[in-house]
Design a protein that fits this description.
alpha+beta, Hypothetical Protein Pfu-838710-001, 9 strands
């Protein structure tokens, strides 16, 4: 089924290339985002280095993030990210930390829009039953679809095709703040994904990706001076997308070499 979906994506790509451009203007707080991929073995040193350079976020220093990403039947958003298109969007519903001990959980419908390195994020909060956030109920979406459509309309974004909850991504995050520029820095690791869309599900358990990622989000595309010691991690800027990387791993054949690594990275890269 996954191979059929990928074939159908290729068939419709040309037909949609000229008209699938319902793009919102970058609104809200515009920011620039840089990402650096790390091998898993570098996570402890990276955490120590960031803690030495920048203070921890006072409100949310550490936590677990859960996001259900939405896409079309033909995985249009995945294609935008995988092809590195300059203008691209992501639609997701996000919530934080462990919700098993609560009857209701606040969730956020988010539209993330990017134009090159510049981007913005719009979000709207709802409260849902904790039961909606667990399998198998999650396959129907963490929130009623009408709420998603209404929120996107408020963001002045109108998808041409129906969106479906596709992929659950969960990871650990440490948060820091650059004292000079106010840039927000995060270290994300233990990145796990689970397919929630029934037509793509192959009966596998969740996949845990190799490696981690440092994200810097701030008012400039320049790396803050306080973070120049990142060169000690021997890493370069990366066009890393959690959604694209995790979806690609889910679509790959079981047992494929490098399945749990970002594209173009072997065991020694």
């Amino acid at each position: 089924m996954a191979h059929d979906v990928r074939a159908r994506r290729n068939d419709v790509m040309i037909a949609w290339s000229g008209i699938r451009k319902s793009q919102p203007a970058l609104s809200g707080s515009q920011r620039f985002e840089r990402k650096f991929y790390l091998p898993s073995s570098a996570v402890p040193f990276a955490a120590h280095l960031l803690a030495h350079c920048c203070p921890a976020d006072r409100r949310y220093a550490r936590g677990t993030i859960h996001s259900v990403y939405y896409d079309t039947d033909n995985l249009d958003y995945y294609d935008e990210s995988e092809q590195g298109q300059r203008i691209r969007n992501k639609v997701r519903v996000r919530w934080y930390d462990d919700s098993h001990n609560a009857d209701t959980v606040p969730v956020f419908i988010e539209l993330k829009s990017k134009n090159g390195f510049a981007g913005s994020k719009q979000r709207k909060q709802h409260v849902v039953s904790a039961q909606r956030l667990a399998m198998p109920a999650l396959r129907h979406g963490p929130i009623p679809y009408t709420h998603v459509v209404n929120a996107l309309a408020e963001f002045d974004y109108h998808p041409h095709n129906q969106l479906h909850p596709m992929l659950l991504i969960t990871y650990q995050r440490l948060r820091f703040v650059d004292p000079l520029t106010g840039s927000r820095i995060s270290l994300d690791w233990n990145i796990r994904s689970t397919l929630v869309y029934p037509l793509l599900n192959r009966g596998e358990q969740s996949l845990t990706m190799e490696g981690a990622v440092i994200e810097i989000k701030g008012p400039s595309n320049e790396i803050p001076l306080t973070l120049h010691s990142l060169h000690l991690l021997d890493t370069d800027w990366s066009r890393y997308s959690k959604y694209a990387t995790c979806m690609q791993s889910q679509l790959e054949k079981t047992g494929s070499f490098g399945r749990l690594l970002p594209s173009g990275r072997g065991e020694n890269s």
